[in-house]
Write a sequence for this structure.
């Protein structure tokens, strides 16, 4: 219960997701029980698949992740991670404090076998299809082998969840040439290139993200988070500006205005992060889905469905099998 409009968004999204889940699935809402019950009372959908676990503490967005987890052991984030670690739930989803959620899940769930550092795989919609960027902010101090594993894990995620066969992997740099970039990028380039099982197209630039150059874009968490925040801010501003201009141009022609607004609405829907729910933390020993704090009810519903799909396609099992193979062969 950590979104900007908690618990209403989580509750409504959870109720809506119930209709699309299997009969034996259950949604567990973790947070202030009276507040959740009040929000549930306003919902008209079926609630027989919903359970509530009370947590009387909440970690704010501006609180220190580690310190808040230490001083608030009964926060919804801490309780959620513990429930997953105990096997009471099979996936955990949060739109709350990202640092606290990632820290709690990594402490409780540890890493999958063979994984050096988990990374966030963020799906970015483009006109050429989805692109998964990894890492989106979990690991700010990367080593070459971390980026190499992000290429593997994000490729598995892209292939199993989004159905992209043999996804093309690009390494984010300041130029396409192998010798360009930081020491980290150059070393990672060499590691990824040596693995013939990865469809590595080499270095890519940030402008390639929306030009269909690759299906997976690999970078460290600092760079990835900057890219995501820039896209979020710039796309919102550009789309609002375009909509305003369309209104001015089509004021005198109702038919043209209707067509223009329909096209604008379709574009907004394509690039709305709520359509994709959230982003998995790849490499952690569980199913952990990060959501935007501004997620709508639709976003929370889609986050539940993403977690369900992640489990159904056994993404973590595939990652473990692949990296265990690397251990045997000495790669990475």
């Amino acid at each position: 219960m950590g979104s900007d409009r908690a618990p209403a968004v989580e509750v409504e999204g959870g109720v809506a997701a119930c209709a699309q889940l299997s009969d034996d699935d259950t949604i567990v809402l973790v947070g202030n029980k009276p507040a959740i019950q009040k929000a549930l009372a306003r919902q008209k959908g079926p609630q027989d698949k919903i359970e509530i676990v009370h947590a009387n503490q909440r970690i704010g967005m501006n609180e220190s992740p580690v310190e808040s987890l230490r001083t608030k052991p009964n926060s919804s984030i801490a309780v959620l991670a513990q429930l997953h670690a105990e096997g009471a739930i099979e996936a955990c989803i949060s739109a709350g404090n990202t640092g606290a959620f990632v820290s709690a899940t990594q402490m409780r769930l540890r890493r999958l076998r063979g994984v050096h550092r988990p990374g966030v795989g963020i799906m970015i919609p483009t006109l050429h299809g989805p692109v998964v960027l990894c890492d989106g902010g979990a690991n700010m101090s990367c080593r070459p082998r971390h980026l190499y594993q992000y290429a593997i894990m994000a490729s598995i995620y892209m292939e199993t969840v989004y159905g992209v066969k043999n996804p093309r992997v690009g390494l984010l740099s300041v130029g396409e040439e192998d010798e360009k970039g930081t020491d980290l990028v150059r070393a990672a380039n060499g590691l990824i290139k040596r693995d013939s099982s990865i469809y590595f197209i080499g270095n890519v630039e940030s402008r390639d993200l929306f030009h269909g150059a690759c299906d997976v874009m690999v970078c460290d968490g600092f760079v990835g988070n900057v890219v995501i925040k820039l896209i979020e801010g710039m796309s919102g501003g550009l789309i609002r500006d375009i909509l305003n201009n369309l209104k001015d141009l089509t004021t005198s022609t109702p038919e043209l205005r209707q067509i223009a607004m329909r096209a604008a609405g379709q574009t907004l829907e394509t690039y709305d992060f709520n359509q994709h729910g959230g982003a998995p933390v790849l490499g952690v020993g569980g199913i952990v889905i990060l959501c935007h704090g501004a997620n709508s009810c639709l976003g929370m519903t889609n986050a539940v469905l993403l977690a369900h799909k992640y489990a159904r396609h056994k993404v973590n099992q595939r990652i473990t099998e692949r990296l265990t193979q690397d251990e045997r062969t000495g790669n990475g």
